[in-house]
Amino acid sequence: MDISSTSGPLTTIEADWLIVGYSTTDSSGELDSPLSDLDEALGGAISRLVASGDLTGKLSESHLLADVPGLAAGRLLLVGLGAAEQLTSRKLEKALVSAARRVSKSSEVSAAIALPQFGSEAISDTEAASLAAVALQVGCVGQGLYRAEPGRHAFSTATVVSDVEGSAEAVARGSVLGQAMNLTRELVNRGAMEVYPETFADRAAAAATECGLECEVLDENRLREERMGSLLAVAQGSVRPPRVVVLKHNGGGEGAPALAIVGKGVTFDSGGLSLKSNEGMKTMKCDMAGAATMLGAMTAIAKLGLPVNVIGLAGLVENMPDGNSFKLGDVLTARNGTTIEVLNTDAEGRLVLADVLAYAVDLGAERLIDLATLTGACVVALGEEVTGTFSNCDDWSQAVGSAAKRAGELAWPMPMNDLFGDLIKSDVADIKNVGPRWGGAITAAKFLEEFVDSTPWVPLDIAGPSFASSNKPHREGGGTGCMVRTLVAAAEGLA
Where are the domains of the chain? Predict the structure, then answer.
């Protein structure tokens, strides 16, 4: 779905739904432009709603006006943005996605979004236009991929109304980001009978062709040649052969430093011989969210033509129990020669990432980010909507944290003290794949640190925010597409 940009009086905007954001500038209830202009054209209908208390400006509050005289749009949906001085990009996105979800329940519906001019340091007018485009893309796509009636429908036409200079470019950027998030969400939401290593690699290759990315797929024979013993061990219990996908965007020119984005792609995680419970296994189609996020971000980076070199890698396996499965007590040799004592086959994602991170270093990456639904411990620590970040480099950690803030996504840095590394030392190998119960998110990160050499590196534990357990007004259940925009912002920061 393409999203256009237009300008002009709101009364002339032709759409089935005209969504207008509003906030009050002070206690008097004064309306911001363009809502004030619209109110005047409608004979004060909106200000009367404010005076009666029906419109308060509370965040995500909505009020529907249908068949309004003097309005070209069929329905006017007023959406509260909260107090103007407290508005952030995250709050704005929450309000706009809530509105888009409300109006996307029917097919063949056209929608337009208009926003007040903010002119604040917290959020620029062009950023707001971009977020409106993101909301239109994301809000009309649900998780009902297998339902006869999907529940949400793409808009027949979608428009962002803005008179601000640069708004057209901002809308185009937001549309690309929204599409990238939806690609990630779709892959996460599809069942493991459809998304497994070979089919994910096929989707990645098709996306690469569409976006102009270089693509190479490493099959199991090539993986053996590349000495990816840790990844191969995880895969050996499944009838689905493993794959590693390598995507390249060469926007920075020959010889320019490269950023590598590495995604964990366990397309289904049964736990292996350390078998999960039914409750723990039922959402494990989402254990490839890291790889899906990488792919979404790489398509956006390519479509936006960012002047930076980026390598995207996905380690793709199924973790299944059978007579060939790797076992507790096995000692694996990773690509970089590190030996690993296996004490839990359900701590498999780090074994996959170990080899792919080492491969990224060997490809010449000078900055690393990896994404993984890595640990339940991170969800315990930070909840379901915050990404845990770790790092071996303060400067790079701060850069990625700043990118997340610009993207309006929640991330929190966790400690990486050496004492946590001591917890994964093994008596029979160089390291073991799990430590004790406490500090599990950090010991997982310390494990991965063994495979990045001295390359500045930030792992993102997205176990909580990548898959929503239920619907909310501002968010569809299932895959969320979190961190796609952060990755793009991080790449932009290197341009």
Answer: 3-174, 196-494
Instruction: For residue 446, give every residue at least 6 positions away whose Cβ sits within 8 Å of its Cβ, in sequence order, or none.
Output: 416, 420, 421, 423, 424
Amino acid at 486: T
Give the contacts of 320 (CB within 8 A, at least 6 positions apart): 237, 238, 239, 268, 270, 272
Name which of 188, 199, 231 is nearest 353 in CA terms: 231
- Alpha-carbon distance 402 to 134, whole Å? 20
Query: How much is the mean pLDDT over the chain?
Result: 95
| Cβ 208 vs Cβ 215: under 8 Å | yes
**Catalytic-labelled residue, pool 350, 367, 432, 475:** 350
What is the three-class DSSP state of 79? strand
63-103 pLDDT tens trace: 999 988 889 999 999 999 988 888 899 999 999 999 999 99
- Of the chain, the end-to-end C-alpha distance in Å amounts to 28
Both tokens assigned to 318? 């199924």
Q: Residue 2, exposed/middle/buried by CB under 10 A (0-12, 13-18, 19+)?
A: exposed
What's the rounded Cα separation, in Å, for the pair 346 and 434?
10
Q: Please state which architecture CATH assigns to domain 196-494.
A: 3-Layer(aba) Sandwich (3.40)
Cα 388 to Cα 411: distance, rounded to the nearest angstrom? 6
pLDDT band at 26 (very low <50, low <70, confident <90, very high): very low
Residue 281: the pLDDT is 97
β-bridge pairing 457-461 and 367-372: parallel
Cα–Cα distances (Å) from 36 to 11, 50, 124, 127, in that order, read 12, 12, 20, 22
Token representation of residue 37: 């202009």
In angstroms, rounded to a whole number, what is the distance separating the alpha carbons of residues 27 and 258? 51
Which fold does the domain 3-174 belong to in CATH?
Leucine Aminopeptidase, subunit E; domain 1 (3.40.220)
Model pLDDT for residues 399-446, shown as the tens digit of each residue: 999 999 999 999 999 999 999 999 999 999 999 999 999 999 999 999
Its pTM surpasses 0.85: yes
The question of whether 350 is a catalytic residue gets the answer yes
At 213, the amino acid letter reads L
Ramachandran class of 123: left when φ > 0, alpha when ψ lies in -120 to 50, beta otherwise: beta
Output the pLDDT for position 35.
Answer: 81
Are the beta carbons of 190 and 289 closer than 8 angstroms?
A: no
Q: What are phi and psi of 178, to 5 degrees?
A: -60, -40
Q: Is the pLDDT of residue 294 over 70?
A: yes
Q: Which two tokens stand for residue 90?
A: 């995250």
Whose tokens are 């903010």? That residue is 118
**Is 276 considered catalytic here?**
yes
Query: Position 288: which residue type?
Result: M
For residue range 338-365, list pLDDT tens digits in order. Answer: 999 999 999 999 999 999 999 999 999 9
Catalytic option among 227, 276, 405, 406 = 276
Half-sphere exposure of 199 (CA within 13 A, CB side): 14
